[in-house]
Amino acid sequence: MNANEVHDLPASPPISVCxxxxxxxxxxxxxxxxxxxxxxxxxxxxxxxxxxxxxxxAIAASMLRPGDRLIRNQPNLGLNGNHxxxxxxxxxxxxxxxxGDDWLMPGALRTLVPHFDDPAVGMVFAPRRVINxxxxxxxxRLGPAHIWFPWLRRYNHGPTLVAQMMLQAGGANWIGEPxxxxxxxxxxxxxxxxxDDIYQLVDLDFWLRLMLRxxxxxxxxxxxxxxxxxxxxxxxxxxxxxxxxxxxxxxxWLIVDPASPTVVxxxxxxxxxxxxxxxxxxxxxxxxxxxxxxxxxxxxxVTEFARARQLADKLESPRPVSP
Length: 323
Description:
Spore Coat Polysaccharide Biosynthesis Protein SpsA, Chain A; disordered C terminus; alpha/beta
């Protein structure tokens, strides 16, 4: 299907379940089956294949219902670009990502979506199970993310949660991966989708920008399963060291984001100085590519803030989320 044909489709259900996949032939059937077996919620299924070299697209095509969509990117858009393509193609008011190697627990959609009856709620999240590629639970290494919030209720003011996360410098994802979060499509578009200059912490950055603009609901029930295998894209990013500026860029954004309350801006600025100093010392003494990294960090006091302000200028002023 041509992406431009999306506007000619009939009226959509309230939820868009978006499956960004890349070479997931071994797991996509399990993933899609978990979505198609959801009950009690009306949803469309949008599968976006990032030009895979295996047969996951053929497997997905054989499972889709009439009205569901399979789009193949040509050329490859990369992890962040593929997620943004999903947001672009989604027609529902709410988006639920399900990665091609993850899956939803029964009843996940009907449990999450009622929280959006409150027009102030822009994001709902729940705990997840984490397993390795042998289906062995990883409780110790990758346990519940939400337990680090000092004060978490079912209904939360988003900026207050961000302020709590700043106690740990805003560098840890206390929400979870995309498969355990549902959010409003319009809100995702308002914040500009996923950034293309953040790699390992891209989901954390996205959650923070959403949370600064809405109320956030927490459902204390495991509703998804995250597959953490040796071949995941996130592990490849770590090996390639492409993520080394992620944390600094998130802190920079929190300082300049027009939706950040004063407590978040001030705390982020303190952590920015500490993080930048530690990175300069690490790059000068221990890090690879020392000369180039020290140069980048020296310029970061100007370049990173200029980059963040350019992004901020593209966003609309914060406003209440409509249902």
